[in-house]
User: Which sequence fits this backbone?
């Protein structure tokens, strides 16, 4: 498959970054404080790794104001996700809804069985059924491509330094625009309608520009998990741009659909 190499490269880059940071911390501890410093640095690294791994999901969903929803509350959404999961041969993710009026969606977790998908109220209001189907398919494409582990880990790591510019640097080092292009293509094929996803991306991008979220704290650390850049393209929000241009994403989807230029 054409997307295998980029996924491996994306994961390898995150592993290399983790190894580099760990090595630097261990070396500094050993040089400055000897054996005791090495032991302390090892303990700190273990604690940081544990926090980044196990608390990323809670941190992200709390920052998004997400709450779990039942099938009784959102029967149409449940049926849609179940149908696409069956077609993609994926387990059903946990579904949550954020009260945010900006249309957006993210999926967090470390495997297909631990995935949690969160849609905003704005997304559920502004998209047509076909557009929502295409957006959900895009998120499930991330799950099937095993993007979640690295993305969730980097969100957890960035959340530990969420209140300084270093978080933006971490997201850029562990994110790859190609993963959005690949998820767009695979999601469009899963939903069977590339133009519906193109239309959804246009709507989301336009509404996100009109109703930008504030790029602060834990929400900033999770921005790369969303389907579109949620902040303003100016000021501090510009530091967190990890998504490829929406116009290029739409162009590729139109080409996939055989749309005449």
Assistant:
């Amino acid at each position: 498959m054409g997307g295998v190499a980029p996924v491996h490269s994306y994961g390898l880059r995150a592993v290399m970054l983790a190894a580099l940071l760990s090595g630097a911390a261990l070396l500094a501890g050993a040089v400055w404080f000897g054996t005791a410093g090495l032991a302390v640095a090892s303990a700190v690294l273990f604690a940081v790794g544990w926090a980044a791994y196990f608390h990323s999901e809670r941190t992200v969903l709390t920052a998004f104001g997400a709450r779990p929803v039942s099938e009784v509350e959102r029967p149409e959404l449940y049926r849609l996700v179940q149908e696409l999961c069956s077609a993609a041969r994926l387990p059903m993710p946990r579904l949550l809804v954020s009260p945010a009026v900006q249309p957006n969606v993210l999926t967090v977790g470390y495997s297909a069985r631990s995935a949690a998908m969160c849609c905003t109220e704005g997304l559920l209001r502004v998209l047509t059924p076909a557009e929502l189907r295409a957006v959900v398919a895009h998120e499930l494409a991330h799950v099937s491509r095993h993007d979640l582990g690295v993305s969730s880990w980097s969100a957890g790591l960035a959340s530990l330094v969420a209140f300084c510019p270093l978080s933006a640097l971490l997201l850029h080092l562990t994110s790859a625009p190609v993963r959005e292009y690949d998820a767009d293509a695979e999601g469009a094929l899963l939903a069977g309608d590339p133009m519906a996803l193109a239309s959804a991306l246009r709507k989301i991008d336009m509404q996100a520009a009109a109703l930008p979220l504030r790029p602060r704290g834990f929400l900033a650390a999770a921005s790369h998990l969303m389907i579109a850049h949620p902040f303003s393209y100016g000021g501090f929000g510009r530091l967190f741009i990890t998504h490829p241009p929406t116009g290029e994403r739409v162009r590729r989807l139109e080409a996939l659909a055989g749309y005449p230029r």
User: Anything to note?
Assistant: The radius of gyration is 19 Å. The chain has a mean pLDDT of 80.
